[in-house]
Amino acid sequence: MQPQLEFDRLQEHFRDPIQRRYEVIRPLVLFQDRTATERAQEIGMHPKTVSRLKRRFEKQGMLGLFPDTVEVLPSGREGRVKEAVIEELAYLKSLYDGFGYRELCRIIFCKVEERISDKTVKKLWHQLPPAAPSQLPLLDYHSYAERVEARKQVIELYFQGWNKLSISRFMGVSRPTIDEWIRRFESENLSSLEDKKSGPKSPERKVWLPVMLEVYHLQKRHPDAGRFRMWSVLGKPEISERTVGRVMALNKRIYPDIPHVVKKRKKKAPQPHPFKAAFAHEYWFIDGRIMDFEIDGVKWWSLIILDGYSRTMLAGAVARSEASWVALTVLYTACLRYGTPHHLISDKGGASISDLFEAVCKRLGIDHKTITGKDGESYKNWMGTVDRRITPPAADPDRRMIVSSHAAPQYPDACHAYRTGDSPHTPAFSHHGSVHGALAN
Q1: Backbone dihedral angles phi then psi of residue 146, each to the nearest 5 degrees
Q2: Does 173 lie in the same domain as 93?
Q3: Nearest CA-CA partner of 88 in 70, 68, 114
Q4: Which of 14, 67, 178, 338 could, after both became Cys, cross-link 19 (CB 3.0–4.6 A)?
Q5: pLDDT tens per residue across span 92-111
Q6: Are 115 and 224 found together in one domain?
Q7: Confidence of residue 248 (pLDDT cuts 50, 70, 90)
Q8: Are 3 and 33 in contact (CB under 8 A)?
Q9: What is the pTM of this model?
């Protein structure tokens, strides 16, 4: 039988155009014993049409034989969402439009007992039409006749899967209030939803004024007793030992006649210092102290002069004894560098009240005053601090005294050092020259 006649006879049995197209290319894809041009001549079609159908079949299979006007879509899973789930979603959307998708999944599971993914809920939620505000079946918290019923509604929504933020926005109540109601319900059940009094809830007081007075008299009778002993003597087991101790402490603050109570004294107002300097070199202070070290079994003396305004060490000396000539040497060293002060303050040591020292102060026009009582003790404390900073002298038998002058850091060149022996004729030198001649004069 000729191919043309066979093809024409088969067309009578075709029920779909796809069958005819497949029959056109069937010998080409199954037997491959002829070309597309030869097949086109056998069935009386254009060669390009046969070649195009063959190419599309090789790429897409049977889908390539469909006409271009037909849209081919992949077959998806059939919808298996129950009608009850869609109805519940529509009901929830009519109530409130601010749910989260996972929250909706939780609500659907609690109410319909159907597990559904958040992606499916998102797709269904957007397909539902928006509900009118007039369809809301529930009222907010402030519209309920009884506040207890509103609180029960909050608990019901929470156990239906609503989160606290959605309940707060839907009911018109703050988030902390929702948290408090849920906490009270979980700890006390439904009884916690009733209104509670706002008054104090502290237990009944056990300590009143009669008990405090009884403890007060016991404190006067037993001044050395502690709180445990006082609690046993009081004989009130309903009061704890610590409570008795607090009552005792309060009584000591109120009643000053209880023994062993330290009485507070009023703090005196600070008095002005008698030797407070108003400018530099108005007051100088001279004092001597025994040093802590020994040389040849003898403790040396440190004698210094301080400026009362800047608290600067002006001159100092370390000697074997506190003699008047040591005080005059230190005074001369300070005057040589800074001039004479208006006032010189000292204690009543022998070197400071000697006739020779008084004569030098009078000749230089210095008002020499001695400290009486506790006046100026703070300046003597300064001197004790500076004395401890002086380093011990070298253990040289020919050197018996060190005289030094120190100034503030802004005067780096105001540092002098003098050494002299036992003999008054032994020279003492510094970069200012000899000092013995000036002392002798």
Answers
A1: -115, 130
A2: no
A3: 114
A4: 14
A5: 888 888 888 898 899 888 88
A6: no
A7: very high
A8: no
A9: 0.35
Decide if 76 is inside a domain.
no
Number of domains into which the chain is organized: 5
Provide the pLDDT confidence category of residue 432 given band limits of 50, 70 and 90. very low
Instruction: Return the structure tokens found at 347.
Output: 């204690």
> Which residue type sits at 438?
A
The CA R_g of the chain, rounded to the nearest whole Å, is 56
The residue from 119, 136, 153 where one domain ends is 136
Verify that 322 and 383 share a domain, yes or no: yes
Q: Are residues 103 and 163 in the same domain?
A: no
Nearest-angstrom CA–CA distance, 211 and 396: 79
Helices 147-159 and 164-171: crossing angle in degrees, nearest 10, is 150
**Residue 163: inside a domain:** yes
Is 77 inside a domain boundary?
A: no
**Paired tokens of 193:** 């939803």
Do the domain assignments include residue 128?
Answer: yes
Torsion angle defined by CA atoms of residues 340, 346, 352 and 353, in that order, rounded to the nearest 10 degrees: 110
What pLDDT, on the 0 to 100 scale, is given for residue 396? 42
Residue 169 belongs to domain spanning? 138-195
